[in-house]
Amino acid sequence: MHITRRTVLLFASASLVPAFIGVSFGQAKDFLIFVTNEKDDTVTVVDGASLKPVKTIPVGHRPRGIIITPDKKDIVVCLGDDAQLAVIDANALKVTRLLDSGPDPELLNISPDGKILYIANEDDSLVTIMDYKTGEVTQEVPIGVEPEGMGVSPDGGMVVATSESTSMAHFIDTKTYKVVANILVDSRPRYSEFTADGSQVWVSSEVGGTVTVIDTKTRKIVKIISFEIPGVRPELIGPVGINFTKDGKRAFVCLGKANRLGVVDTASYKVIDYVLVGQRPWHATLSPDGSKLYSANGLTNDITVVDVASLKAEKSVPVGRLPWGLVVRP
Amino acid sequence: MFGSLPARKWASGLVLLALGGLLLFVAGTVSGAAQQPAAAPAAAPAAPAPLQVNILYLSRQYMEPPPLSLVEKIVTDKGIQGARIGTEDTNRTGRFLNQNYHLSEMVLSLDDDFKAKAKAALASGQKFILADLEKPDLLALADMPEAKDALIFDVRTSDDSLRQEDCRANVFHILPSWAMRTDALGQYLVWKKWTRWLLVTGKNPDDLGYAAAVKRAATRLGAKIVDERSYTYAAGSRRTDTGHQQVQQQMPLLTQSAPPYDVVVVADESETFGDYLPYRTWDPRPVVGTQGLFAVAWARPFEEYGGTQLQHRFEREVGRIMTERDYSAWLGVRSIGETIIHINSVKPIDVRAYLLSDRFGVDGYKGEPMNFRNWDLQLRQPVLLVDPTELVSISPQEGFLHPKYLTDSLGYDQPETKCRLNK
Asked: What is the 3-state secondary structure (H, E, C) of B254-319?
């Protein structure tokens, strides 16, 4: 509760920022950041308070998508070239299980109750549904070409998978595992993320350069958000990862080769700022208290720490080669 | 553009249709993929009216020398296989939108009456044509009155003259031109500070065309061609007993007594001797150009920006690697599909307008949307620099700027163009 109040306070007044920084140091908690290094076949673990790497975990070939289970006990990583998922014990920092995921898993997500994994098999036009406890594949849902994004609604009832080559967001009902809607978006949709209230799903189109906001009830497109950055060629703006702030008022969109995060006001859909980070950020994640955002920068082999309130990049932390995605363990 | 799509209406009804279509696709061959989607159950009343899109792949059995290297397989179906995969990929999206893409294939022999057959195909209503044709046939096709409102996608040539004085208003060029390739290579050489070039040219017209582009690149990038050599031997058979001794003697001879230079730039479009240059030059210098380190739209070593998926998909379906011409034909189909998916019309005038609008951007696995230059209908694109086994770089290089598109630093820019589309 304390965290929430502070965050609200911050958004209420930017002038409180200096005060906030003092508070935030005093409250630094013991949390860890896990980063997949696509080229190194490892996950780097960074201490959230000191921002020092504490461990490099060898996981298998081509680690990309990474999530944390709702109970915060496990980190699950897609191993694209091994057709497997690696399960890392979030406390012991060791790989404890390998699960057969089907070919070329790129990105995954998990149901809010922690029971079901949804895996995008990029090379196979399938969404693989897996029972997390047993590791059994219970279903495969065919969608368009090159599945990637795998947004799960807050109530767990709907998964929105994107297919990069088909340029669509596919709504999958998790009771029946049937595709109930296909929404055409701009080219190469890579990521989908539900708002906290489940009313919208945001889909990023990397090649199209846009984020499409879809109303989950009517399944109609509410808004297509474009990005314009002075001095940056439009073709370099490639939206991928989307993170909403804890209060839901802003969205951070990783813009790939534009080397920036776009900050979107979720009420007006206006882009209010761009934060310069390392090169080619594809995914980001929030600190447990929501005050910091960490972006994984593929081409500079680092993560950038961004202060959510002031929208300033504060520090970059070297990790492995081609960092792809990251999660935080509180 | 999305507002016009009746998304809600088709969404509910199309799902069954789409899933049926996907199953058909997985099991089907190319001809299967070209058929109408599996019959939808009666529960699909809200689907939009079906749209049939016909694409013609037109080519001839030209004489092509076999690759010099025995490691390279002789491939006789370059291009068409890419068009087939492109049609399958596009149908995957089309099924969700009740659009069906059908590819007809017409590969004529050199004895066939090309004009008569092409005319007949145009008269039968083909408006979207993938032209895997050499320059004389391409121009003959483009200039037919029946082709006036057709959209022809040149998936084969790199000839600068077809983008310059011999350009046509109904011909879109997918592959990078020679000028784009030599600029791509030249930018990299300049970045390496390898700016003294020894130019070695074959004797065929295409070799001379490529060599002219090398000279243009040298001039605009500030490099220097220190000397020019010409290789005039006839191309030999690739399979000979004891053939290497002669090559070992010829190549030093060809490159001896040159002024100081950094790289050999070879212009051998017909692939008759360029592969013999590396390790055999008089001075120990790298070889670049049409062989050695070369500039291409697509090559097997490239797997970035999701390229892995296209490489794998192609190899799984076709059983060989995807050549540049396959990529070109694939991208031609994708350009047509990317347009019709959004405009839901097959009227050539609508398709052309969208293709040339700022809304068009085709995803060719290069990490950015690619569109056509409106002054010569050349596809803008990053160009790969590869050797036979590795991706070395991707141009444009850092620091080569352009006010509009960085990729317009490659090839003939608008102020330099000799193309007049509305003549």
From this structure: HHCCCCCCCEEEEECCCCCCHHHCCCCCCCCCCEEECCCEEEECCCCCCCCCCHHHHHHHHHHHHC
pLDDT in tens, B314-343: 999 999 999 999 999 999 999 999 999 999
Residues in chain B whose Cβ is within 8 Å of chain A: 2-3, 5, 7-8, 11-12, 14-15, 18-19, 22-23, 26, 89, 92-93, 96-97, 306, 308-309, 312-313, 338, 341-342, 361-363, 367-369, 405-407
In this structure, the answer to whether residues B375 and B416 fall within a common structural domain is no
pLDDT of residue A143: 92
Contact B147, B136 (CB under 8 A): no
From the list B19, B22, B369, the residue facing A187 with the nearest CB is B369
Which among B7, B15, B405 has CB closest to A178? B15
Domain that holds residue B357: 51-176+298-381
Asked if residue B134 and residue B62 are part of one domain, the reply reads yes
Q: Could you read off the pLDDT of A80-104 as tens digits, one per residue?
A: 999 999 999 999 999 999 999 988 9
Task: Give the separation between CA B194 and CA B256, rounded to whole angstroms.
Answer: 19
- Rounded to an integer, the average pLDDT of A274-280 is 97
Give the residue on B whose Cα is nearest the Cα of A104: B309
Judge whether residue B2 has pLDDT over 70. no
B118 and B107: one domain? yes
In which region does residue B292 sit, left (phi positive, over 0), alpha (psi from -120 to 50) or beta (all else)? left
